[in-house]
Amino acid sequence: MDLRPQQNQILEYPLDKKLFLRGPSGTGKTTAAVARLEQMIRQGIPAESILVLTPQRPLGKPYFVLANRPDLPAGGRLSILTIGGLARRMVELFWPLIAESAGFTHPEIAPQFLTVETTQYFLSRIIDPLREQGYFDGLAIEPLRLYSQILDNLNKTAVVGFPLDEISPRLRGAWNGNQAEARYFDQAQECAIKFRRYCLDNSLLDFSLQIDVFAKHLWQEPVFQEYRKNQYEHLVYDNMEEDYPVAHDLLRDWLPVFKSALLIMDDSAGYRSFLGADPESAANLSLTADKILRFTEPILTPAPMIEFRRYLVENIRLEKPVEPSEPVKLPCIHLHYNRFFPQMLDSVCRQIESHVQSGARPGDIAVLSPFVSDSLRFSLQIRLEKMGIPVTSHRPGRELRNEPAVCCLFTMAKLAHPQWMLKVTPLEFRSAIMTAIDGLDMLRADLMANTLLKRKSEGNTLNPFSSLKPEMADRITYQVGEKYETIRLWLSSAQQTGKPDLSGFFSRCFGELLSQKGFGFHRSYDLADATERLIGSTREFMQVIEPTLPDGSAGAEFLGLLEEGITGAQYLPSWQEERPDAVLISPAFTFLMRNQAYPVQFWLDPGNTGWWERLNQPLTHPVVLSRSWPAGKKWTDAEELNHNQNTLVNHTGGLLNRCTGTLHLCLVQVDEQGNEPRGPLLQAVNRFLRY
User: Fold this and answer.
1) Residues 6 or more apart in contact with residue 75 via CB below 8 angstroms
2) Cα distance between residue 437 and residue 514, in whole Å
3) Which of 462, 524, 515, 467 is nearest to 493 (CA)?
4) How far is it, in rounded angstroms, from Cα 222 to Cα 94?
């Protein structure tokens, strides 16, 4: 591996010292850290004595790649963890030691660690009865958003480090609106406290309780202190700015134990601040280091892109710009003007086709937008596939129930388990059969839904194809009828398997039926990815929920919950998968958290206010529930403006640092809603164009 002089300093740094490394993204910090790790292992340091920490698992991808290299010396494996993952491991290992002191009612019961969906499930059992009593009455919010914001408050108490009963006082102190609406903060706090009590009574640990037990109870136990002193000798902590203050507190206490440490921080980042990320807290860890080193030279980002970033920052912050002595020339920045949104999508696809014809890999191209709706993704996919260019997307905020693969598998599960009495509507069956049978059009699928689906849920819910009149069978075609019969007979045999195992059913339905040639899931990466996420969510859900429900009803409960919007957790493979053959369509924030450079970027509709605005969260607040916010200080419009400016500067700067070739800014005069876009990012671009 060829390294630059600034990167070689990392390799040469002594293994009995602690180094704090910082700099903008794209300057080679992680590459140097991976090279140092490889050197350490080749010099004979046991891999099992090295701990690699990242804020979330996708950011650990370069280290996972190193750990799996077959040419490394034989021996133990690297520990690549998040603080959350470490907390779960240690709480489970030392459970008998701390269960009683942590306040669990039945310490003899083994802990159950909750996932996103199981946490939402138990929280709904607490909140729904309270809503029937009038809680949150008058607040226009969907149940799923209500659950997620209360969980966000719980998580903030754990990762920032303040008691549950301070949620409402902190939010009330900053509230600058109608004081009558401040009662919602009290109700949200009461729900959080009731949920915490429920977890303590039933040995359930959501993310917030795992962190709380780990940091406040287990960390100070003498037995655990001795254990962690002997566990690891060397530390690499990457992307510290994306981690939360309690994680930094624990590392500050832990660092004296390590022989060496490499602490890595991106400047002007902290993209996960809405989840508790605290760059200021991370920067304070520099006080524990023997040396502070700063990388300043971008490795792949071209100079015009850096220059464009400077101009953009000036114009976003409305600073007085330095007038250039000659006209600005930025050959790698291209602006495309279109009147309407569909015309913009046509232009984007033509530009992508031109790049591919010029030799670029589709996987070198990223199409970014503040939000990626189903219609946007579908529109781009249809256009690009007509050009023979494959597309992939990653949208972790998308609800699992909205994936076509999941809708299809849900319908299959209902048809295979009539004892659950879950009705399948003709619309559901039409969508499912179109997804299940390759090439089936809507007209024939509608005919099948109206003739082959029985109106009753009990017994066999599908009619055989042979029951159709000959003229109807001709319209549907016997080729489609043969595939339908394969599905019907498979579902009929699945009814005879005895006790329902929903995750096993989904797995078998995919492997034995839908992924076969001629069916809709055959060679479809997106459908396979959604199926994997569904199977993982189902398995996790069943392990926790099944013992609390009547025999055989857990599958029906799971289907009902996901249809209501309770979503599955994010899984590492969908984050890590690289498709060099496919154009990536992604929300801009999700793209930043991939931490991966792309030669070509398209920014869609810079006039959209989604590039700028903070999400409306009436029951929580990422800044107010942080350590940096003074108690009692009001959140004003000026604070909102400053926060949005800083966020836009950081996000656009992060995107430009990850653009190594060409940037296309795709502007429209009329957006999808028929309005003229006037967002701050577009205004900043327009001011820049004066040069």
Assistant:
1) 41, 46, 47, 48
2) 8
3) 462
4) 12
Query: In sequence order, which residues have a C-beta less than 8 Å from that of residue 65 and are 6 or more positions away?
Result: none
Tokens representing 300 are 């792949």
Q: H or E segment at 333? A: strand 333-340
pTM of the model: 0.87
Q: Within 10 A of 189 (CB to CB), how many other CB atoms are there?
A: 24
Say whether 659 sits in a helix, a strand or coil. strand
| Angle CA 678–680–683, to nearest 5 | 70
Cα(681)–Cα(369) distance, integer angstroms = 12
pLDDT tens for each residue of 49-89: 999 999 988 899 999 999 998 888 877 889 999 999 999 99
For residue 512, the Cα-to-chain-centroid distance in whole angstroms is 30
- Decide: 665 and 606 in contact? Cβ < 8 Å: yes
Nearest-angstrom CA–CA distance, 481 and 464: 9
**Which token pair is 99?**
């269960």
C-alpha–C-alpha distance, residues 594 and 54, integer Å: 13
Residue (of 170, 173, 269) closest to 626 by Cα position: 170
- Over residues 391-449, the pLDDT tens digits come to 988 766 566 777 889 999 999 998 988 888 888 889 999 999 999 999 899 999 999 99
Cα-flanking dihedrals φ and ψ of residue 110, to 5°? -65, 145
Spatial separation of the C-alpha atoms in residues 46 and 25, rounded to whole Å: 30
Looking at residue 378, its amino acid is F
Residues constituting the chain: 691
**Which of 380, 379, 358 has its CA nearest to residue 367?**
380
Q: How far apart are CA 553 and CA 1, in angstroms?
A: 56
Contacts of 103 (CB under 8 A, 6+ apart): 200
Nearest to 480 by CA among 490, 470, 465: 465
H or E, element range at 129? helix 116-132
Task: Rounding to the nearest 10 degrees, give the CA dihedral for residues 442, 447, 452, 458.
Answer: 70
377 is written with which tokens? 């993704």
CA dist 513 and 450 (Å) reads 23
Nearest residue to 530 via CA among 490, 562, 495, 496: 562
Q: Residues 185, 168: contact at Cβ < 8 Å? A: yes
Can you state the percent helix, strand and coil of the chain, rounding each to 5? Answer: 55, 10, 35
